[in-house]
Design a protein that fits this description.
Number of domains: 1
Order of helices and strands: HEEEEEEHH
Strand content: 15-25%
Shape: globular
Number of strands: 6
Number of helices: 3
Length: 126
């Protein structure tokens, strides 16, 4: 976590250090890797072909026993990363856009990065 990073996103929304770490791996494999803030966390650009594909990075929100959001334990955050494809509506009508090969390639690259990092425990989807 980088002090003050949630001033660029929303309060208690972190993930910039994770995004920058993933960005380095992407760049070394020929992807864009540009990091930018979003209201929910951080976005890492991957490629524009066949459409915009990016990775989202952020902390998982925690709830109390009544289901209300609580302030996260900054010393013990759980991170989430996900791969997204933005298929423009008009472009997808005019020609078939299938980003699955690139999504699988990026997902495999990120999974390999996470698995070989001994300080990370890979969990299932929330």
């Amino acid at each position: 976590m980088i002090p003050g990073e949630d001033q660029e996103t929303n309060p208690m929304r972190f993930g910039k250090a994770v995004a920058e770490w993933i960005s380095e791996e992407l760049r070394s494999n020929g992807f864009s890797g540009e990091v930018s803030p979003e209201d929910w966390g951080w976005r890492v650009e991957c490629t524009d072909e066949p459409c915009a594909i990016w990775i989202g990075c952020g902390n998982v929100e925690e709830c109390d026993t009544q289901g209300n959001f609580k302030e996260p334990d900054l010393n013990n955050l759980t991170w989430q990363c996900f791969v997204e494809a933005d298929k423009p509506f008009l472009k997808s009508i005019l020609k078939k856009i299938d980003p699955s090969n690139e999504i699988n390639r990026i997902s495999s690259l990120i999974n390999a990065l996470l698995i070989r990092s001994s300080h990370i425990e890979v969990l299932g989807e929330p």
